[in-house]
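The following block was generated as part of the benchmark described in Methods. Ligand: zinc ion.
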Amino acid sequence: MTRTTADVTFLRGYNQALVMAVGRTARTFERSTVVNATGLTPQAVSKVIARLIADGLIRSAGVRRASIGKPAVVYELVPDSRYAIGAHVARRTLRLVLVDLAGAVHHSAVSPLPSDFIPEQLLHTLNSGIDAITSGNDLRGRLTGVGLGMIGPLDHEHGLVRDAHGLRHWHDVPLREIAEAYLGLPVHLDKDVAAGITAEAWRHGGTFGDAALIMVESGIGGGFWLGGGAHRGAHTNAGEFGHTVVDLDGPLCVCGRHGCLEIVHNQAADAGDIPRAARVLAVGVVNLLQTLDLAHVVLAGADLLRHADTYLAAVEQAVQADARRRDWLSTDVALSSLGADAIAAGAAMQVLDNQYGIPDLAPLAKSNPPLPQRTGRWRASLMLER
Ligand SMILES: [Zn+2]
């Protein structure tokens, strides 16, 4: 590819992503909405809109007649123009969802996985589940791929599961590659918690600041949204929140250390003392707030959602009690808006995002914010478009 071709492709993808970001966060929009939000010229916006209409991604939704000047065409995203399937791979279950271009969940189903399953067993269960979705919904030409949100540690960039916690047969498994070959579809692999926090960011759009998704499901993990994107760390191992120590002389944890948040929490939960387990988690959340200064904390995971009210109350109370200056240190605590679908839906949104958008750009639908920085992260997501 020559340099000129590459740059043109990059700009076309960039402008298209700008318009799609506006379309996803505003219900309807006009050419002038995009011009004001992005700083692109009206001519450039017209070209991109024409291309997106030709691709079926947006459509005209009527005309707005102003008291003066020419009537303006109103556009909207076409939600059913593209879909992605998202999977939440847990230790005993596989949850699959179908998500449209606007982020709505259309289908959700859970299948059991054999205990201590091997890669082939996962692929087989995935394939049957995807067959069930595609036979029940006519998705011809509209399915963009499959997103997998899985237990880590894993390397999302190389599609490699390093050592899934609690599963013995997953050591350096190139899951993305073998799943693409087995399923015949593009696959995106990420840690469960990174997928989950992406789902929350998509749903909140431009109002979503720095945030953590705390997941309690067998273990305890944290997904982080920092500076407008999912934070995975220097070795893609961020989020091992459950293995931070809360009791120096505490019980021995599976990780080899003593008194980790996860083992202290699990001992209380296993003894049936859910209020104490919730208080232990709340201490960990406040430690996180002291370290990262977050605007949102989202609570998720099957084990937590079974006692959602107890956990929510404990975390809210700890956050309120420990933030001495509520006038400027405020953190919103909530249960995941997608409930049990959060991880699978987020994995699907990551696939759509790689193709059609950039989460950083969501704030563009608000009034006149500055243009986003060209960070490596979204440049990488645009590279995938080519
Ligand atoms: Zn530990």
